Amino acid sequence: MKTKTLCLAILAALTVGLFPTCQSRPDEDVLYLAIIWHQHQPVYYQEPDTGIYVKPWVRLHAAKDYYDMAAILQEYPDIHATFNLTPSLIRQLDDLSNGATDMYWEMSRVPADQLTTEQKWFILRYFFDINANIIERFPRYVELRDMRPDASDADIQAAMAVWTAQDYRDLQVLFNLGWTDPDFLAEEPLASLVAQGRDYSEADKETILNEHWRIINEVIPLHREMQADGQIEVTMTPFAHPILPLLIDTGLATQAMPGAELPADSFRFGQDAVAQVELGVQYYRDHFGVDPRGMWPAEGAVAQAMVGLIGRAGIQWMASDERVLAHSLEMDGFERDSSDTVEEIDLLYQPYTVQESGGIVSAPVAIFFRDHVLSDKVSFTYSGLDGEAAAQDFVDRLHNIHAQLQEQGTEGPHIVTVILDGENAWEYYENDGKEFLHTLYQLLSEDEEIVTVTPSEYLEWFPAPQPLDDLWAGSWVDGTYSTWIGEEEENQAWDYIYQVRELLALYERGSRSIDAASLAAAQEMMYVAEGSDWFWWYGADQDSGQDDTFDQQFRSTLQQVCRLLGEEPPAFLDVPVIPQRAQPPNQPATGLISPQIDGQADEEEWALGGYYQALAGETFDRLAYGFDAQNLYLRFDSPGEWPAPPQAGEAYLGVYIAVPGGGATNPFSRWGGRETVLGFGATHLLEVALSARPVAATLYAADGAGGWIEPQALSDFVLAGKTIELGIPFAVIAPQLDTGDPVNLRAVFSQPAETGPVDLAVLPEGGPARLVTPDLGRTTTVLEIADPEGDDYGPGDYHYPTDSVFQGGVFDLTSFSVGYDEESIVFKFVVRGPVDNAWGSPTGLSLQSFDVYIDQDGPGSGARLLLPSRNAALGADYGWDWALWVNGWFSTLYQPGADGEPEAVETEIQVLPDPGQRKVTVKVPQSVLGDDPASWQYAVLVMSHDGYGPDNLRELEPDATQWQVGGRPGGTNYPRILDVAWPAGTSPSQEEMLAGYTLSQELVDQLGPDDFAQLEMLLP
């Protein structure tokens, strides 16, 4: 029988700044569990004039998560847990407690019948920023969402035309109710508002906002009280949540990313790393009355180079991820069996000691390493399960670990560390995760083999951990820093911060003078800019749906550093790191066009082209576009005749264009300068001088410094009344432009003012147009098959996940073709559903995952078993020599190795989605694959991409859940394939092939090709 954790606060210990101490420890024949909930928000930008925060997430997560995540533990006194409260979060909680507000708070308070047009737009755009699961709890919220189905400018404009003051008022209330913990919603004064459901008053808004303010004021006192009682430990993170090793030296990224491109100038400001830690310690001491003992480095990012400064700050333990431990032990990773239990179990489930190297002596620091899989189960997977079932699975996995430890006879004690966000996961759970958390804590309270502890308790009970000689430079994300550095946007952000940091250094060194208070304020703002969150959203590996707003806050923070120093912010800080989000056309191009450039605006000529409709204005009515094999065509329609002298003076229509490989770029318009940010870097300017006689069109190239050079007249141009038509030869802007290539474009109308021409109108208004080059007919096709519609159900009984992102037909392949052009083998996939970028992949493809298997010489060579986790094989008459895996993040070409296992081949793979034609074109060099595709055989699959699924494929469950495919049979060898390119009426059918196997309970890695579904191949 184990002894439950009995902690008594020792008053004498508190007087010398220590924590409550446990008097006894459990028996050693148990498994210890440390649950660490990480609570964090970045320091959101405050408008300098008003102090209003531009984002509301500190307030809203406080109301929904931060208080109740700790309070729920009070119902389970035997459960001990750890809460990491970051200083950046605490700083803003303090500010809100002292009367600061956020923009969403201010917009909520505006009387609904007094909202301006801009305020209505803000509310319609941002007050649906809440998980769909939460909206579904409120019928009126669902009704309002259906009245504004999307956040596009057109949908918002349409809603503004019909919404009443009561609609806006109800949305103001429901947004804030939705962002409130369900336990508070079940109590007065909010229970009555929930029951009322609609038709809220202005006073009701004040009721909910006052409750939010009350909850905010209780967050820190609750944690302080529970830590004093000994049930929880509160830990910290360096001040602004920076990737601490990258402040010491961005070059540390190369240990885990040896081939990565890093910023041109290395960021080496170790003094900032020290200051971030010292500030974090000071915030903790000021709020909890003691020094912190534990620290979660931001994102678990650690390196040997930071160990000394952590020890000198008095931190006794920190934590990271199992992938960092594996590399520190010179392992590729921890192996897991079919139940996800770690094989090298003794190595993972214990803390280690790290100490400063190089002859310098600082205090040793213990380090715990989290179980990555178990942590991610809570973060990303369990939300799709029933709460009780998910909690039981969590506990069952702990028992599997305990059993494995006993089976291997390893000497204890052992501790499993689970670390994850204590806020972001719950909105995906039913009822904010209440059932899961209550069941989990109850099960753990009753369990005799599992003891929950805080890391500090564990270290008090047991001897010093064994040393770890060299701590790997990595984080919880892939064991690298790749989420924060190495991609083009990330490196550009580091360039921005480097230049501003160098400016600050001039004042720190005394090269330029400033008073001490202003210097300290600028330094603190610099530390805010060094936070990891800004870099998290740069690059293609993460997408918030509002990355541009984080980009704006990052640049505004750097601009504020400059202003605090008395400096004018440099122009480059006006240029977004993230190109402004492209606007979808009202109608995408669906084919090639060949219009006569005559100014007649013949709709039939432009029918297969796309267009953007202006929302309002006196200048633009519509921008139409289209392609043929040699030209890009543009047509601009105006509500009235285009301006002409003498009334117009110097009037210009500027068409700013960016083409792949187009050379130098300029971010601003010619006449607007810093006042008109294009949202992308323009490689060319096509300027129509409306004042000239005759009206002239001139094409310029960007010089990269704001100038426009190499003018050449455009001959294929006509202005006639309300219409301007243009034809731009690819030869003069992008000779290599081809199928799937993106063309960014924005039109700006400029007229004279006292100081010269100024920009008066822009189209599209909300961001640049993104034109996708359609199939230009340059491919010689050797195989083309039509696949039946509606067969995206695998063996016949698979069902899509229930989340709304999985629209009908997104995995339904309708045609597939193979061909070649001068340099590449070209594969084309067409699906019935949307080809969009719901999750912000670098290629524009998010949901679909395609496989192509190529047999070049029959069964004499090659492999039959398909790529991992497909759970399918080729029939005995085939053997694949090449396997092409296509997805939005890391498309890869494989060959079978000597042992038959797939081996990746280094080559360039172009993935070119065309949303208008619902087509994905993929090009692989002939120099790699060969040049005789007409003689090869093919097998083609469609699956669902999931970055958290087995080998990045979406998992199946017996019944479809929010994120899992439904229809899983009882064995282990079921295929994860939704559609196969296979002509109708062909025997065997797709269903027969995918269902033609015997269910097995064996581990799939112990099965051979004949144990899986057998696929036939296509022959041209």
**Beta-strand fraction estimate:** 15-25%
Shape: globular
Termini Cα gap: 70 Å
Low-confidence stretches: 1-18
Quick description:
This protein is α+β, with helices and mostly antiparallel strands and 1020 residues long. The strands form 10 sheets. Strands 16, 19, 20, 21, 24, 25 and 26 form a 7-stranded antiparallel β-sheet that branches.
Structure in words:
It is a single chain. A hairpin with an 8-residue loop joins strand 13 and strand 14 (622-627). The protein contains 28 helices and 41 strands. The model is unreliable at 1-18 (pLDDT under 50). By secondary structure, it is of the alpha+beta class. The longest helix is centred in the N-terminal third of the chain and has 28 residues, at 202-229. Helix 2 (57-71) crosses helix 12 (202-229) and helix 9 (165-178) runs parallel beside helix 12 (202-229). The strands form ten sheets. Strands 16, 19, 20, 21, 24, 25 and 26 form a seven-stranded antiparallel beta sheet that branches. Strands 34-33-32-30-37-40 form a six-stranded antiparallel beta sheet, with no helix packed on it. Strands 3, 4, 5, 10 and 11 form a five-stranded parallel beta sheet that branches. Helix content is 28%, strand content 21%.
